[in-house]
Fold:
Amino acid sequence: MKGPIGVGTGLRSVQARRLRESRNLASLGRRVWRSRGGLIGGSIVIVALCAAAIGPYLLPVDPIEVDLGNRLAPPFWQAQGSAVHPLGTDHLGRDVLARLLHGSRISMMVGLVTVVVAGSLGVSLGLVSGYFGGTLDAVIMRAADVQQAFPFLALAITVVAVLGPSTRNIIIILGVGGWVLFARVTRAEVLRAREEVYVEAAGSIGASNVRIVVRHIMPNIASPIIVLASFAFSLMVVSESALSFIGLGVQPPTPSWGSMLYDARNYLEAAWWLPSFPGLAIMFLVLGVNIFGDWLRDYLDPRMRVL
Structure:
């Protein structure tokens, strides 16, 4: 009798968990819909994700194909514009819209991967530093101080000089350069959480340090880390564009928003669309992520919820 009862209990617990998850998702969707900031920011983020995921398939144009006979063609709504190139062409006759869509993949990929790298490293070190304290805390925090004192551009130039410019290396630069903020925020949250009653209770019944950190502290400090990750994503996108603009990031002919701005620097008056569209793409993506991150902070903070 124990076997079937155990199986039935397990199935019911799984079903109950799935029901709770579906209700949480439904509640999240309703709150996004009711919030102007959440709706606007979430819509921009979804559009950016769709553009990166399926945009190049909807516009099957080679973004690096050179057509000197059609160089500096304006957008389709201007005289001499063409629907074949809706946003015009650049100084080499390459389609601007196709380059924007392919560049969105670079920006989104670099932003997501670097946040994962920096977040994983920073959160791990912050947990160790805040929970164990002592010498480990001092060493990790002094390493963070040294990291912050070292100029970011000097670090980027050093890594590029050793490894060469590439997408992989720009991820290394941004990931290594971005862990400090995650570590400091995590450490501060752990210092607060480890004094809570539930942590003391877990320790009093013999729970190991790993169990206390993973099962009790991490779930209670996840909210500020998630919000921090959303804002760090915006910072990584801007940083990738800046490094690509000065030649330390994604290399030609691979399209990226930063390199598109670099190519457009000599055509500000003759072809206004060359700097405008990649600049607007960066602005709207960063704005959307920041607005959604601001709403997410309010949503995850129980003190600011209005039921």
In short: Residues 96-132 form the longest helix (37 residues). The CA atoms of residues 15 and 109 lie 35 Å apart.
